[in-house]
Design goal:
Radius of gyration: 21 Å
Strand order of the largest sheet: 1-2-3-5-4
CATH superfamily of the largest domain: Aminoglycoside phosphotransferase (APH), C-terminal lobe
CATH architecture of the largest domain: Alpha-Beta Complex
Order of helices and strands: HHEEEHEEEHEHHEEEEHHHH
Number of helices: 10
């Protein structure tokens, strides 16, 4: 988690170790011959005009959705873009989906400055390759501010659609029942049942504002340049998701990954929704939806992200029982 204090400190130490030569004796090594990268190097050269690109490689978290990501650069470190190369069946589907989302959103002039430019996407050997621009600027902030609001407004305006709340409840129920989340402890089963019953009752005949959602809207998937947010990593995007779910996700992920406690700031999107009975069912559905996604990704039941969602759901259902 690059945004965590411990990770930032480790990165600083690693820089020193590399410069002094100590890093050569530490950690694991992965050997790649020139043949592994030759075709990718040719693609980057043909696409960008850079004669001699170099790469930094990142192996994602091991699992069904693991990708090999390469940052393509000039020799001076100038960024050319990011290459995602997937071979596992599930990760191929996600990267292919990301390419489709970037194609659609890239047609909107208001969104174009906020998202990567799709430089190449297509079948690649036994997998799929996506090459996209890197954007620029500093790492995105960990607090939700006006640049985030501006981006989400543009996203809503570009893809706004109204949906019957009953459809959303049915989708959340089906997703829960079909994911490994249904095998979690019995307390999760009770939470899921009560969440779906409460949402079905309180959202009956309601119409919900939806749009294309990023799906993993969090600081580590953003950059900030000249006050404008640049948002990448669209693998988890959803076409017709409640517009409030991206802000909910941002706040919950920041607390789960970087928080020192279990309470959100009073002005956060989640806390504001808690104070509004009409919004609580949508927050509950988001928490159940995201818990199912985490379980599908192989997250352990004791993981802090799942535990935080359980605590928030328990709190919401307690409030609903008193209202």
């Amino acid at each position: 988690m690059p945004y965590a204090l411990r990770a930032r400190a480790a990165k600083t130490l690693l820089r020193v170790a590399i410069r002094t030569g100590v890093a050569r004796a530490a950690g694991d090594e992965i050997q790649l011959t020139d043949g592994h990268l030759r075709d990718v190097r040719e693609l980057v050269s043909d696409t960008t005009g850079e004669v001699d690109p170099v790469f930094a490689l990142m192996l994602g978290t091991p699992g069904r959705r693991c990708n090999l990501t390469l940052k393509a650069m000039r020799r001076d470190g100038g960024e050319l873009g990011f290459v995602k190369l997937s071979v596992a069946e599930e990760s191929v589907a996600r990267v292919r989906h990301e390419a489709a989302v970037l194609r659609v959103l890239g047609r909107n002039s208001a969104l174009r400055p906020h998202i990567p430019n799709l430089l190449y996407a297509g079948e690649w050997g036994n997998g799929y390759l996506l090459f996209q621009s890197a954007g620029s600027g500093s790492p995105g902030r960990t607090h939700f501010g006006e640049p985030h609001h501006e981006f989400l407004r543009a996203l809503i305006e570009a893809s706004s659609v109204s949906r019957n709340a009953g459809e959303l409840v049915e989708e959340a129920a089906a997703e829960w029942n079909e994911s490994p989340a249904c095998d979690l402890a019995s307390d999760w089963q009770s939470l899921a049942r009560f969440t779906l019953e409460e949402a079905s009752s309180r959202l009956a005949n309601a119409v919900v504002a939806c749009c294309t959602a990023h799906g993993d809207f969090a600081p580590w998937n953003t950059r900030l340049t000249a006050g404008r947010l640049f948002v990448f990593d669209w693998e988890a995007a959803e076409w017709e998701s409640p517009a409030c779910w991206d802000p909910f996700h941002f706040e919950v992920q920041v607390l789960a990954r970087l928080g020192r406690g279990d309470r959100l700031p009073s002005h956060s999107a989640v806390e504001l929704a808690v104070e509004q009975p009409a919004m609580r069912p949508l927050l509950s559905l988001y928490l159940l939806h995201s818990a199912a996604g985490l379980a599908r990704d192989g997250v352990e039941p004791s993981n802090r992200s799942l535990e935080l969602r359980k605590k928030l759901l328990t709190r919401l259902l307690g409030l609903a029982g008193r209202s």
